[in-house]
Amino acid sequence: MNEMRAPNVGLSEPTTLHPSVRDTAGSKKIALLRVLGPGHVWALGVGIVLVGEFMGWNFAVGKGGPVAALTACWLAGILYTCVAMIDSEITSTVAAAGGQYAQAKHIIGPLAAFNVGLYLVMAYTMLEVSNAIVTGDLIEAFATNAGLEGAVDKRAFMVLTVVGLAFLNYRGVLATLTLNLVITAAAFAAIVVLFVAAQPWAPGAVLKHGDLLGGLPYGSLGILAAMHFGLWFYLGIEGTTQAAEEVRSPARALPLGTMAGMMTLLIAATITWYVCTGLMPWEYLGQAVTPLYDAARLTGNRWLETALFLGTLFATIASANGCINDASRAWFAMGRDRYMPVWFGAVHPTYRTPYRAIVFFAPIAIVFAVSTPLDQTITLSILSGLLGYTLMALSIIVFRRKWPLGVIPRGYVHPLHPLPALILLTLCTTTYVAVFLGYGTQLMAMTAFYIFASVWFVLHRYKYVRRGDQFTMPWPKPRGY
């Protein structure tokens, strides 16, 4: 393999480029495979997010009560609908691995792209960790209910989840996301089965909303506080963009899969809230680890309990599976562009996956899973996602100004611009305040981490970046250039 060094740069990184990064004389280029369709995009987005219906969202009930949680659910739904519309327009135009990272480097600049890449990696890795934690807790709870208390070590299942799914991702994206398609559909079906079994057409027969639903125990401040975990219903739907370089028709598959996924999640979130608040006192629901599984147990139906055990297990596995896919694509794209060591920008010659990026994050996820509380990992994921959404709102405004409609082809044009961007900024700001109320220390720590990382990038890493090579879209010069 020929060695290539960065031209016109003060210092070049002493490393050999993988052929996936650049063609060399006499070498064969190895690229990611374009094998995915709209169904796989839907499975990636919903597969990552649907676990939010099985765990995590209910902490919003503890923050403000059931009515506040429902309000936060719908406000977060508006936020993520804006995210999905903005994402669909930009990604159908910038169809490259890395998703929002690729968008930021083309539209805003290197420092913003570096930070967005870190946001993505942190958000998906912490979401993967949360899934591993819940998988272990769920299996331990099921074993205890079956009379096998003490026979299961949940940490072993946390490790097994991370390692097994990392191996699956290592072997190929088509099998990975086809599995997600199947088990995500099964998990969604479990939610529908529970909804039907709860007999919503007969109020009071199973669901006791009249007895269990209260007002706002903490007043309007509770609605604000509930926004923190309200995002968990939908966090990760933007991950559909990470498959941009591996779908057969980005202009069609990405908007269709993303928007269909968002509609699926809105339905699932509302059903989940309705069933759980009708079966459990809000004081218990607000701290449950597996609320839908607990709801099924309270019905007294053993078959329903088993169905929701499997549904919760499938949801956590699908989410962790998608998170590994997305985090590795973002890290791979940063390595390919030299924002991180180019060693990470390698594609496996047989399986055509970013295998080094996949393997790199497995031990990191395991360490967090066995040592960090669930609410902390959820908060770290939400905060990183929020920072990314804030920059996304700014990106679409800059994008429309630099390349107005009609200047470059777009696979999808989101309506009512700039209203979705302004709504997104407003809801993000509100959620920052909500997070600060309960997790101010984590918010300050994350902010400090990203500031220090930015300084490191500017002072050390930027000299390795090839500015000209990272712009892959055949666009005209932006307006005002």
TrEMBL record:
Keywords: Membrane, Transmembrane, Transmembrane helix. Its main location: membrane. It comes from the Bacteria. The chain crosses the membrane at residues 41-61, 67-86, 107-127, 155-170, 177-198, 218-235, 256-275, 307-332, 353-372, 378-399, 419-437, 443-459. The keyword Transmembrane applies. GO terms for cellular component: membrane. The keyword Transport does not apply. Signal peptide: none annotated. One of its GO terms (biological process) is transmembrane transport. Residues 47-450 form the Amino acid permease/ SLC12A domain. Pfam families: AA_permease. It is found in: Membrane. It is a multi-pass membrane protein. PANTHER family: AMINO ACID TRANSPORTER-RELATED, MEMBRANE PROTEIN. This is Transporter. It comes from Methylobacterium gnaphalii.
